[in-house]
Amino acid sequence: MLDALSDVLTRSHLFPPDEQETLRPVPHPSRVDPEPQPVEGSLAGRAFTMVESIPALSGPAWWIPMIDGTDRLGVIEFVFDDPDDAADPHTRRRCETMAGLIGHLITVTAPKGDHLLRVGRSRAATAAAELMAQVLPPLTAATRRITVSAVLEPSYDIGGDGFDYAIDGNHAQLAIFDVVGHSMKAGLTCSAVIAAIRSARRAGADLIAQGEAADAAVLDQFTDARFVTAILADIDLDTGLLCYVNAGHPRPMLLRGGKMIRELPDGRRLPFGSRSAARSVGEEHLEPGDQLLMFTDGVVEALGDGGEFGQLRLADLAERQTGTGLPAPEAVRRLARAVAAFRGGPPSDDATLLLAE
Q1: Cα separation, 62 vs 67, whole angstroms
Q2: Which entry of 90, 152, 206, 314 is 20 to 30 Å from 355 by CA?
Q3: Whole-angstrom Cα distance, residue 337 to residue 347?
Q4: Is there a contact between 18 and 49 (Cβ–Cβ < 8 Å)?
Q5: In angstroms, rounded to a whole number, what is the distance separating the alpha carbons of residues 191 and 197?
Q6: 22 C-beta neighbours (distance < 10 Å), count
């Protein structure tokens, strides 16, 4: 195992940078590649969704989740010649260490080329989606005090939605955005707003000043009328104080003990891109284990046979998913799949969910 780890590290600088519904095999010229495996209903999928090692049913082998920190990348199948090796818990832990190392190395080396991105895709992405993929942070991040996880649909055609976060010391700042329209123009607008928010945030600006920076970015860079709804939030991880600004966006939901206890109605202002005179900050005191769910209108306005998906349906599903103790990335993925199943076809608008726990 030490030799294998050393080999991975030695060759890592030369690694060719060769919808969470299917796990797709990375091709290798010396083997016949297996078929893609569904996330739902397969051992590989269970290892991925639950972020836990799962023994294979056929032969001495383990499916080990491959993560970079807390961001799920895929799974690795470790196959053993000796069944005793597969049964040894020390060997399994070493495999988990190697899977974590490889996940980190993939994250570092993938930007060198397109191979791994092509492997993971079931179809081509639009130019707007490629743009947003370079702007957005990883879908999941975690410290011992907070976990943040997001999902965007349609992932290959996202244009106007976005999210951002920064976890530093005793503060976590979160943001979700929805640009009017669905095109490269919408993607450019969302990118400009995220850049303005980050610039202001990193200069020490508060939530109101960050909103003003977003206003300026839209008004100064684009001559036509463009608007961006958004929520900016700051959580003091020592005291649990949540401060937030809602720029014309759907109200976030607060869940406690697996129950949606209320929507957060305060901190209202006009969408970014309008020089709103009204400036206020909403406040809420969070408790350990609380979950904050933010979403764009493409979620609650998704159309199915029963009309709109709606906030009541979202609240009910959020209670069921988050109340089961699922990891935050899996809870939010299942929420997104439920919206897609209700819709039953391609979305008419971007749909983004962000869950902070």
Answers
A1: 16
A2: 206
A3: 12
A4: no
A5: 10
A6: 15
Distance CA 357, CA 331 (A): 11
pTM assigned to the model: 0.78
Task: Identify whether the C-beta of residue 300 lies closer than 8 Å to the C-beta of residue 309.
Answer: yes
* Element of type H or E holding 107: helix 89-109
Tokens 């999902």, located at residue: 151
Q: Per the structure block, which two tokens stand in for 56?
A: 């294979």
Q: Please indicate whether residue 225 or residue 136 has the higher confidence score (pLDDT).
A: 136
Measured CA to CA, the distance from residue 18 to residue 289 in angstroms comes to 39
For 148-172, give the DSSP string. EEEEEESTTT--SEEEEEEEETTEE
Question: Which one-letter amino acid corresponds to residue 157?
Answer: D
**Residue 281: φ, ψ to 5°:** -125, 125
Give residue for tokens 């493409």: 298
Q: 293 forms bridges with which residues in the sheet?
A: 253, 355
CA-CA distance, 100 to 73, in Å (whole number)?
Answer: 10
pLDDT tens track for 181-215: 767 888 899 999 999 999 999 999 999 999 999 99
Structure tokens at 128: 């707007």
Q: Which residue has the tokens 């080990």?
A: 64
Tokens 């005291």 belong to residue: 239
